TrEMBL record:
SUPFAM superfamilies: Acyl-CoA N-acyltransferases (Nat) (SSF55729). This is GNAT family N-acetyltransferase. The lineage of its organism: Bacteria, Bacillati, Bacillota, Bacilli, Bacillales. InterPro entries: Acyl_CoA_acyltransferase (IPR016181), GNAT_dom (IPR000182), N-acetyltransferase (IPR051531). Residues 9-176 form the N-acetyltransferase domain. It comes from the Bacteria.
Length: 180
């Protein structure tokens, strides 16, 4: 992936040097969908950073000033021209607009350079911050999938299924809002 710069951020490929920062935010996932990404050791962090460094669908979000890794974006292409996107940020950087700034840059990149026609995101019904982010990006809520997927279990061992919203935006809608 080519680097993308915003006013305050640099979006780039991951590298092994990101392991320490990854350990900080992936050791205690706050949203159930990231429980599968949980890491607990330095070795797991290095392995995770190296794995993501070889995959352009994972994008490191770093502060331009200092280069600190503060979170990540991810994409999954569905042929021919649709992308599923998501994000995961270190809690200590919340409330500063970094998720919005980086996600907006990602959507612009997907629409203008990767030929995306449609971009969508899945968001759990209790993840209010991501719902608000989707709305700030101009995405519309298309529906709610009841008991859509399970990332964790109840104390009795049965799966806990998440209600999940789908948000989406078309390129023509993105261009309309970008030109306002």
């Amino acid at each position: 992936m080519q680097n993308i710069e915003t006013d305050r951020l640099l979006l780039r490929n991951f590298s092994e040097k990101d392991a320490e920062s990854m350990l900080e935010y992936l050791s205690n996932p706050r949203v159930n969908c990231f429980l599968g990404d949980k890491i607990s050791t330095w070795e797991e962090a290095i392995s995770n950073a190296n794995k993501k460094s070889e995959d352009d669908s994972y994008i490191a979000v770093c502060l331009k000033d200092g280069g600190d890794l503060i979170g990540e974006l991810f994409t999954m292409k569905e042929e021919p021209d649709t992308y599923n996107v998501g994000w995961n940020f270190n809690q200590k950087y919340e409330g500063k607009g970094y998720a919005s700034e980086s996600a907006k840059a990602l959507l612009q990149y997907l629409f203008e350079q990767q030929g995306a026609r449609r971009v969508y995101a899945y968001v759990e019904d209790d993840n209010y911050r991501s719902q608000k982010l989707c709305e700030r990006l101009g995405m519309r809520k298309e529906g709610c999938f009841l008991e859509f997927i399970s990332f964790t279990k109840y104390e009795d061992g049965t799966p806990k299924y998440e209600n999940t919203f789908q948000y989406a935006i078309l390129k023509k809608e993105w261009l309309e809002t970008a030109n306002r």
